[in-house]
Design a protein that fits this description.
The protein is of the alpha+beta class. It has one domain (5-144). Helix content is 28%, strand content 46%. It contains five helices and four strands. A hairpin with a 2-residue loop joins strand 1 and strand 2 (76-104). The longest helix is centred in the N-terminal third of the chain and has 13 residues, at 5-17.
Length: 148
């Protein structure tokens, strides 16, 4: 069985990196999750955050942010958690070399060498911001989603 390079890279990343699933995060923060009411648990399990949620609740729902930025203003200090969406975009094919094939001319019986191009699919890693959560005093005060 032949596996493409992007698929192999994804499998290695999943195996070595260990997926951050909701179940793993809920186990990690079991005491906090158990203290929440059933509707809030269901909302976090669905990956939804709300105003007033704690940083732990945001972590339970979404996992660790891709980026964190601190801000200081006249109102005080805030932390912004940024979540990105990652994907690979197909960019075409590239000739990586040539493979020699020996064929016999059926009319003359003369061997002929043909060169067949070896192509490889090219993908570009892409990312875009999908969510920005602002926390002040450990509570969510702003949730920003970029317009599409």
């Amino acid at each position: 069985m032949k596996i493409s390079f992007p698929l192999a890279a994804l499998l290695v990343t999943l195996v070595l990196g260990g997926c951050s699933t909701f179940e793993k995060r809920a186990q990690e923060k079991a005491a906090i999750f158990a203290a929440l009411d059933a509707p809030t648990q269901a909302r976090l399990k669905a990956g939804e955050v709300g105003l007033g949620d704690s940083a732990d609740m945001v972590y339970l729902a979404l996992g660790a942010p891709d980026e964190k930025h601190g801000q200081v203003s006249a109102e005080g200090e805030t932390v912004v958690w940024i979540y990105l969406r990652h994907w690979q975009e197909y960019r075409g094919e590239r000739v990586m070399g040539y493979h020699a094939i020996t064929a016999t001319d059926p009319r003359t019986g003369t061997p002929t060498v043909l060169y067949e191009p070896l192509e490889q699919s090219i993908y570009q890693d892409r990312e875009e911001e999908r969510l920005r959560v602002t926390l002040k005093d450990g509570k969510v005060t702003v949730i920003e989603r970029p317009k599409k």
